[in-house]
Model the fold of this input.
Amino acid sequence: ADSDEFQRLKEAAEALASETPESHIGPALDQLQGVTQGNTWTGRDLRVEYNRLFLGPTRPLCHPYDSVYDMDREEADQGTVMGPSASFFQNALAVENLEIDLGRAELYDHVAIELEFMYFLLSKAIEGDGEVKTEYQAKAKSVLKQHLVKWLPAFGELVAEKSSHPLYQKLGQLLTAFM
Done:
């Protein structure tokens, strides 16, 4: 990311921090910016680490699916994919007439899909007024409380711990700080 993007993120983080003084987002952004400046990583380096963390070839080190972290499920289903959160996001995307186009098949409760959906909800809330604004704020708050805060802090910590790549380590720390 370029310095303008980091500056905008930093300003947003400072605005958030003024509402939640215990926020660690600003320092996490500083650390992320620090590891991205002057890096010599290749796309291959990032793909190899992505595959190692999230895909395998054996059991992934960090499952990127909400369902895996859902401990409210039946004991036999805990730690598996395709849980209630996958169904929830599949339905939520359908209600909003949204389709997934990642260039590959992916489960509906993948971290990228959940975060993109939250972005969509917040964008609608910001752009809307009156009832539309209130409706999308309520939807965003519900997704945050019922899904994102329940698993993303643990996921971010796991990524930071298991990654051997500084970018993924800092992204994991940022995700945890943001949640």
